[in-house]
Amino acid sequence: MFTDDTAKPQHKLIISGYIETFADIKPRGLVRLIGHLGDPIKQTVTIVPSEKYPFDITGINAEKGQNIKFELFRPEPGQNRYAVTVENIKNTQGRYFDSLVVKTNNALRPEFNLRIFGDIRPPKQTEEK
Q: According to the model, what pLDDT value does residue 111 have?
């Protein structure tokens, strides 16, 4: 950290703490839809609410939605797990970013985002013999 104190213009600042997770989300961080044009490209995200912060998913929608389709699978009775399948529908090569907004019934975290990155590459070349 920098200050305007001429005697001590720089200070080290150390911050520590415990981070509690709201849910176990896998894959973590980013849904990657990477593949070749014409191939099916999809990924399933699992969401398991933590015991300390239980919630039900009450809705889900895409911020943009032009290049993806998605489906939420609700848990079976007695299970505390959700699955969201995200599939590429872009029919041209190129990259895109989107985000799914997941709505919950938990007042502490009424919604969270699942970020999506798509990279649609040229069609695979077939080898001629």
A: 97
How many helices and strands, by DSSP H and E, does the chain display? 0, 8
State which amino acid sits at residue 8: K
Strand arrangement of the beta sheet that strand 31-36 belongs to: 31-36, 111-121, 94-104, 57-62
Mean pLDDT across the stretch 88-117? Answer: 97
Whether the pLDDT of residue 99 is over 70: the answer is: yes
Say what the pTM is. 0.81
- Residues 57, 62, 67, CA angle at the centre, nearest 5°? 140
What are the beta bridge partners of residue 35?
120
Domain ranges of the chain: 23-121
Q: What is the CATH number of domain 23-121?
A: 2.60.40.10
Tokens of 78: 């007695």
Q: Would you say 48 and 62 are in contact if contact means Cβ atoms under 8 Å apart? A: no
